[in-house]
Structure formats: structure tokens, C-alpha cells
Amino acid sequence: MLSLREIKEKEYLPRGPYLKAMMRGTFSIARILVTNFGAFKKMRSSDDAGKKYVRPPRRYELPEYREGMKYCKSNEKYLRPTRYCNSHAPEVIALANELGAYEKSDREFAEAAFNFAKRKLILEMLPMDGVEDTLRRGTGTCIHEISVFVALCRAAGIKARYKLYTPTLSDEWNDTFLVDPLLKKWYNSMGYFMLHGEGEVYVDGKWFVVDVGPTPERQAASSMPITKFGEDSIGVWLNSVPDSEMHLESFPYGMDFLLKLAYKIAPGTFDKINAGILEQIEAGKKIIEEAGGEEAYDEMIRQKAKKAPKVELERREELIFAD
């Protein structure tokens, strides 16, 4: 059992922006469910044709753990295991060694861990569990995927942490996640949807941000560039609510409970979201193939973004707005 000191040191206690989002989200979903009980009952069903989710096979083979494999045993901040992010798990150690831990430079290894988490793990909305479970399954939420990246870096002796914030979704991604009228009401009532996360890794004397949540296929399906190592997703495919960003050693208490509760009361909705994610991946594969590969697609979409006209608002003193 953790002491209060350990809980504080490892940043398990929710901070202001996180606590505010969690409380507002809980109040909002409770009010919507009470006032829309009939529609709520439909969220428990997954009978819609074509929307039954079947988890896809893993995109990789897990390497075998062997006694004596090297890993970081430090208790230093950003290097030690934290909740849902056990960097000492055999699955993590074995994979870190296969990716080149203690053989590649810190930057090379961090990029290898980034590419694994971004390209090999598939997004699936489900309750939180540990990195070893995520690696055995091959799927998880953005927090699951970030935890894998962070754990791999820590196992290799490279400092890594979470960057969490409250996002606003792009119109393209609303269609994937807001699959029920009640979800749309919940999102519209708050103006945001739960939390999103990215990872941050300390190499060459500075922190680099990485977003491992969206696979290249999902970004292509939404006509977005394929985010790279060191590239922030804020401003690329989503935006963050002002003053909501937090840099943490661990995923704090609270939001995992909300996700477990939501999964329990609306399994049909989660089925629809997850089935939609797989459809998005298949659509993105075709787009990338038709473009001639990832690099060709990414270059094309970034060139389009550069050529897109920019709209600037200019203040005009002669315009007066009255109540």
C-alpha cells in the first residue's frame, strides 16, 4: 500500500485542471443520463448492423523475456514504475531490449519506441489496465498507448512522462467518437471530451513531445498529416482547452474510474466507437496506398496545408456591437 508521501511524489493526486474536467464531466453525464433515460437504454445495445466490434489481432509478436535482460532499476522521478506504467514488467523489458535498449543512442531508442507505439498499437476504447495487458492485447486508449511508450523509455533508462490536456475534437473525428445522440449532447454541453494525452521523453538535454495515439491510417482517413517524433498534435488534428495542459510522472486518480463507469453503463456505445475506429483504419490504408505510401501521402497533405488560404481578423474601430 502506498503512503501519502509516495502518492504525492508520484503525482497520483489530481491537479486543478484535471480535477475540474473530471468533476464537470461527471456532473454533465449524470444530468444527461437522468434527463434522457430512454435514449440511455439504447446505449447499452450493440445491435446496429455492421457495428459489432471484433478486436483485431496484434500487429506484432511479443519477444520472449529472459533472465538477466538489462533494464533501469532507478527510483528516480520519470525513471521509476508508476500506476498502469510498470517499466519493470517482463513484457516491457523484453520489448525494450528487442528495440535496442542500451545499444542505440537515447534519441534512436526513443524514436524506435515511438514508432512501435504509434504504428503497432491500435486504438480501442476500454477501461484502464497495465502496460503488460496492453502489450498482450495490442490495443488500448491513448493513455494505454502512451503508457507503453513511457514504460519502454523508462526501462531503457530514459526519462519519460505524460502530457495530459482537455481536447476539442476536429469535425472529422467527431464522426468517429460521437456515435450516439447522448454522446453528442455530453460533448456539446462541455465543449470538450474527456482527456487526451501525449508522451514526453527527455533526450539531448530537452523534452520532446510525441503523440502515439493516432496511427498513420487514422490520420490519413481524416486528411491530416502523419505526426512525427517531436511534433505536437495540438494545432495539427485537435486543440486543447486553454490552461488545461499538465506534465505528470503518472496518470492520476479519477479519470480511470469515469472510464470504467462509462464502459459499464454503455457497452453498446463503446462497441460502435471501436468498430468505427477499425473502419477508419481501413479507409486510411487505401488513402495511403493510393498516394504511394506514408511519405508521399504526408508530403502531399502538408503541401496542401501550406497552400490553404489563411484568414486573419482585423479590428475595425468603426464597427460597434450593441446588446
Describe this protein with a few key phrases.
C8orf32 fold; alpha+beta; 8 strands; disordered C terminus; two-stranded parallel ribbon; 323 residues
Descriptive account of the structure:
The protein has 323 residues and is of the alpha+beta class. The protein has one domain: Roll (C8orf32 fold). Helix content is 47%, strand content 10%. It contains 13 helices and eight strands. Strands 6-5-3-8 form a four-stranded antiparallel beta sheet, covered by helices on one side. β5 and β6 form a beta hairpin. α5 runs antiparallel to α7. It starts with a helix and ends in a 16-residue tail after the last helix.
CATH class: Alpha Beta
CA radius of gyration is 21 Å
Shape: globular
Q: SSE order, as H and E?
A: HHHHHEHEHEEHHEEHEEHHH
Low-confidence stretches: 311-323
Count of extended strands: 8
Strand order of the largest sheet: 6-5-3-8
- The CATH architecture category equals Roll
Structural class: alpha+beta
Q: Into how many domains do the coordinates divide?
A: 1
Topology:
Elements: H1 4-9, H2 16-35, H3 37-43, H4 90-98, H5 106-120, E1 122-123, H6 131-137, E2 139-140, H7 142-155, E3 160-165, E4 167-169, H8 171-177, H9 181-190, E5 196-203, E6 206-210, H10 216-221, E7 238-240, E8 246-248, H11 255-265, H12 267-291, H13 294-307
Parallel strand pairs: 1-2
Antiparallel strand pairs: 3-5, 3-8, 4-7, 5-6
Helix pairs in contact: 2-9, 4-7, 5-7, 6-7, 12-13
